[in-house]
Amino acid sequence: QVRLVESGGGLVQPGGSLRLSCVGSGSDFSKYPMRWFRQVPGKERELVAGISTAGGSTNYDDSVKGRFTISRDNRKNTVYLQMHNLKTEDTAVYYCAAQEWSTFYWGQGTQVIVSS
User: Fold this and answer.
1) Contacts (Cβ under 8 Å, ≥6 apart) of 8
2) pLDDT tens by residue, the chain, 116 residues
3) Cβ-contact 71, 60 below 8 angstroms
4) pLDDT the model gives residue 77
5) How far apart are CA 42 and CA 50, in angstroms?
6) Per-residue H/E/C for 35-95
7) Residue 97 has what DSSP assignment?
8) 22: three-class secondary structure by DSSP
9) What Å distances lie between residue 1 and 5, 11, 26, 90, 97, CA to CA?
10) Radius of gyration of the chain (CA)
């Protein structure tokens, strides 16, 4: 089972940028498709972006297309979420997840607040 730790969240002004990182340990990181989710209080966790095991295939929710980029470095057991042109509605706790069939292994989350 992989263990995941996110970092990189914080407070940023609208239009700003952040890069989130998620480091995996305890298992072969490269075998897992990886996902970034986000959640705001009172709402369901939503999928933001996903990336295949080798990084050759990515997908994004329509709300972040053109602004967010997911990438991974399997040598460093790390997946990234580069976020540009942040909007107030991007405020949420962001979670990375490793997918193994129908099971997700979650990190603890990192808070992103977009506010002026």
Assistant:
1) 18, 19, 20, 21, 110
2) 899 999 999 999 999 999 999 999 988 999 999 999 999 999 999 999 999 999 999 999 999 999 999 999 999 999 999 999 999 999 999 999 999 999 999 999 999 999 99
3) no
4) 97
5) 23
6) EEEEECCCCCCEEEEEECCCCCCEEECCCCCCCEEEEEECCCCEEEEEECCCCHHHCEEEE
7) E
8) strand
9) 13, 32, 6, 30, 12
10) 13
Task: Give me 66's structure tokens.
Answer: 């053109």
Residue 34, amino acid: M
- Exposed e or buried b for every residue in 56-90, given b needs 16+ CB within 10 A? eeeebeeebeeebbbebebeebbbbbebeebeeeb
What token pair was written down for 26?
């305890």
